[in-house]
């Protein structure tokens, strides 16, 4: 059975984007060591355009062969002409009720019952499923998430888009890995407590 992993960037105070959802402020906190780690360990989570720039365009997926993103996560790339931002993955899903048709044949839309469709995806053979963003999807899928990988950047945002809007609930997690980097980034991995 495949696992759903919420692999997300956050500020030290838990925000994945500015109040309008823009996460570009994280890019100023990238350094060679951290980017090298992402390219080596999570090459499939780098957009097709970024993979070309990093010289890893042909890198095979290591952990994920499917990505699920919300329309607002998908839209910035779409506005720049990237209709298939993760075309190197066999499965790309955009959750949207407003898009009538996918802008690219490699992208599939999910507009029905999200949790049920994710359970069907998890039942298929393959690598893991990457929940790319954002807060609304994490809220809707809180009970389906098997693992959370938090890339914490050395910035305090003060306010913005939270990791989830699921409301209070003590959901136990098991710490499975921590990796720190010289630029102040920390990657923390948690498995969902059973």
TrEMBL record:
Superkingdom of this protein's organism: Bacteria
Lineage, top ranks: Bacteria, Bacillati, Actinomycetota, Actinomycetes, Kitasatosporales
Residues annotated as transmembrane: none
Domain Bacterial bifunctional deaminase-reductase C-terminal: 4-185
InterPro entries: DHFR-like_dom_sf, RibDG_C, Riboflavin_Biosynth_HTPR
Record-linked Gene3D superfamilies: Dihydrofolate Reductase, subunit A (3.40.430.10)
Pfam families tied to this protein: RibD_C
Protein name per the record: Dihydrofolate reductase
């Amino acid at each position: 059975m495949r696992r759903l992993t919420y692999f997300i960037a956050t500020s030290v105070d838990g925000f994945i984007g500015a109040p309008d959802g823009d996460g570009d402020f994280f890019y100023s906190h990238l350094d060679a060591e951290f980017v090298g780690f992402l390219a080596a360990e999570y090459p499939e989570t780098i957009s097709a355009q970024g993979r070309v720039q990093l010289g890893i365009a042909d890198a095979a997926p290591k952990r994920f062969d499917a990505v699920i993103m919300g329309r607002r996560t998908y839209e910035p790339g779409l506005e720049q002409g990237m209709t298939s931002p993760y075309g190197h993955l066999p499965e790309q899903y955009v959750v949207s009720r407003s898009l009538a048709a996918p802008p690219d044949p490699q992208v599939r839309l999910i507009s029905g019952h999200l949790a049920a469709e994710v359970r069907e995806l998890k039942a298929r053979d393959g690598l893991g499923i990457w929940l790319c963003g954002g807060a609304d999807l994490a809220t809707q899928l809180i009970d389906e998430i098997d693992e959370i990988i938090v890339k914490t950047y050395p910035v305090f945002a003060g306010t913005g888009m939270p990791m989830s809007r699921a409301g209070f609930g003590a959901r136990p997690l098991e710490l499975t890995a921590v990796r720190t980097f010289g630029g102040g980034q920390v990657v923390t991995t948690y498995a969902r407590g059973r």
